[in-house]
């Protein structure tokens, strides 16, 4: 009986070894076939065509910074997916919802390009400052200030660099006046006035850059009006031209 059991056990072990070898052989064979033909399958199968993915698709797009309570938003920073540079930073007021100021940056250099300051209620822009690089220094190139009607919230005034002002009708929001200053931002260059009903240009007042006085051979920067041109409020045609001498008298 002992001899028979030993033979039976040897037979089972041998059969198991053979079966394992057969499984390994076929697995190896199929793996070889798959690896050999897989590239051809990718070429001819449109469904399996390689998909190009952004290498930085998992990079953070936004970072949120909270106030001390850990819940109320303080700052949201946004980043460019490709360059990873910060492109926008938004600061919020104490409620975590109302925008206070927004900074925008160049996605390549990371330099500041815009600063947008909001009013206290966060719904309207108070000012915009644009920046640019000059001689390797960041400089303010344009500033726009906005004023609104306190009753209806309509825009009534835009001031560019303190030398160009646009004024709007408080009810309609239409442009009614433009004032441009000389490069010194103090003395007038011209004033344009518009009709409040037709919104057409009705008057242009031009100022002299320099006024020369022969009496004492002196000159005054932008001392007097040079000309006034008046237009028809409906047709826009010129109806009157008046030119002035440096002393203010009509030519």
UniProtKB/TrEMBL annotation:
The chain crosses the membrane at residues 12-33. The keyword Membrane applies. It comes from Candidatus Phytoplasma solani. This is DUF2963 domain-containing protein. InterPro entries: DUF2963, Quinoprotein_ADH-like_sf. Keywords: Membrane, Transmembrane, Transmembrane helix. It comes from the Bacteria. Residues 66-117, 163-206, 221-251 form the DUF2963 domain. The keyword Coiled coil does not apply.
């Amino acid at each position: 009986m002992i001899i028979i059991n030993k033979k039976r056990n040897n037979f089972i072990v041998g059969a198991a070894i053979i079966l394992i070898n057969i499984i390994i052989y076929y697995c190896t064979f199929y793996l070889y076939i798959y690896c050999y033909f897989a590239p051809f399958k990718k070429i001819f199968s449109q469904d399996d065509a390689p998909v190009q993915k952004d290498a930085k698709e998992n990079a953070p797009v936004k970072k949120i910074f909270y106030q001390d309570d850990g819940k109320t938003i303080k700052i949201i920073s946004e980043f460019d997916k490709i360059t990873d540079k910060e492109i926008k930073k938004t600061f919020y007021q104490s409620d975590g919802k109302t925008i206070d100021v927004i900074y925008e940056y160049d996605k390549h250099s990371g330099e500041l390009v815009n600063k947008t300051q909001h009013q206290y209620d966060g719904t309207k822009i108070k000012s915009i400052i644009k920046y640019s690089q000059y001689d390797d220094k960041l400089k303010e190139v344009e500033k726009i200030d906005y004023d609104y009607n306190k009753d209806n919230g309509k825009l009534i005034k835009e001031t560019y660099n303190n030398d160009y002002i646009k004024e709007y009708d408080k009810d309609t929001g239409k442009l009614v006046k433009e004032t441009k200053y000389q490069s010194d931002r103090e003395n007038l260059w011209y004033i344009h006035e518009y009709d409040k009903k037709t919104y057409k240009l009705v008057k242009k007042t031009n100022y002299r850059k320099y006024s020369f006085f022969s009496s004492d051979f002196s000159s005054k920067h932008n001392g007097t009006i040079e000309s006034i041109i008046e237009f028809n409020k409906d047709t826009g045609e010129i109806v009157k031209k008046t030119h002035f001498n440096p002393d203010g008298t009509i030519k």
